[in-house]
Amino acid sequence: GAGVSQSPSNKVTEKGKDVELRCDPISGHTALYWYRQSLGQGLEFLIYFQGNSAPDKSGLPSDRFSAERTGGSVSTLTIQRTQQEDSAVYLCASSLVEGYEQYFGPGTRLTVT
Amino acid sequence: KQEVTQIPAALSVPEGENLVLNCSFTDSAIYNLQWFRQDPGKGLTSLLLIQSSQREQTSGRLNASLDKSSGRSTLYIAASQPGDSATYLCAVRPFSGGGADGLTFGKGTHLIIQP
User: Fold this and answer.
1) CB-CB: which of B31, B102, B105 is closest to A48?
2) Do B101 and A46 touch (CB under 8 A)?
3) Smallest CA–CA separation between B101 and chain A, in Å?
4) Taking CB atoms and an 8 Å cutoff, what residues of chain B touch A59?
5) Taking 90 as the threshold, does the pLDDT of residue A98 lie above it?
6) What pLDDT shows up at residue A70?
7) How far is B105 from A105, CA to CA, in rounded Å?
8) Which helix (H) or strand (E) holds B75?
9) In this complex, which of B42, B49, B99 lies closest to A56 when CB atoms are compared?
């Protein structure tokens, strides 16, 4: 069946602009996760949704970052007033339920110029 | 704060060799541990997941072990092939109790199998 999909695959934006990244999890997966992978930092966890709710937003790097999930399916990660340090690959993962194996999408490569 | 370390950072071996990748973590209160591979420019592919109550998992030529009390896991690759060349990542899920549920990753081992 279809895996986790993310769009766009690549995004180049100017500093100060807002961007929206989209994640479409595997059908039926109730848990959804966002991660960021940047050079030298490795993979860091950003936020997790169980259904439509995010119990803990403390992993988001700053208040310029927000995420939502509607209908228990698609999620969007929004970065406002982008900065150069936001340049990274943003990865989304889903799992059947909390605690189960996580399956990752191909990622969105964000470049802020 | 949980920290995950992978050794070695890079490894290059001839085709056919058996090899071991190491992962250690500082907080033994984990729910599970997952091994992934990442090919250049691609997302992560899950290889094996070991629950905290398990000691090992096997899939084909791969075997992962877990020693939770000592904070260690190993990924054993038998009869390595050039197609095994990738970055291998180890990640642990905390025993969250309903809080944040994200994985904590190591920085990976970059593996090259020489034909």
Assistant:
1) B102
2) no
3) 6
4) 100, 102
5) no
6) 87
7) 16
8) strand B72-77
9) B99
What gap in Å lies between CA B64 and CA B75, rounded to an integer?
Answer: 4
How high is the mean pLDDT of chain A? 92
Q: Is the Cβ–Cβ distance between A92 and A4 less than 8 Å?
A: yes
Structure-block tokens of residue B41 = 């420019």
The nearest alpha carbon in chain A to B87 belongs to A42
CA distance A31 to A100: 9
Nearest C-alpha neighbor of B48 from the set B11, B7, B76:
B76
| A42/B106 Cβ within 8 A | yes
Cβ-Cβ contacts under 8 Å between A and B: the total is 60
Give residue A79's identity as a one-letter amino acid code.
I
**Closest of B25, B36, B22, B32 to residue B1, by C-alpha:** B25
CA distances from B87 to B38, B54, B66, B110 (A): 5, 24, 20, 4
| Residue showing tokens 């997302």 | B43
Does the structure show a pLDDT above 50 at A84?
yes
Q: At A86, is the secondary structure helix, strand, or coil?
A: helix
Taking 50 as the pLDDT cut, the residues of chain B under it are 99
Spell out which residues of chain B touch residue A102, defining contact as CB-CB under 8 Å: 34, 46, 103
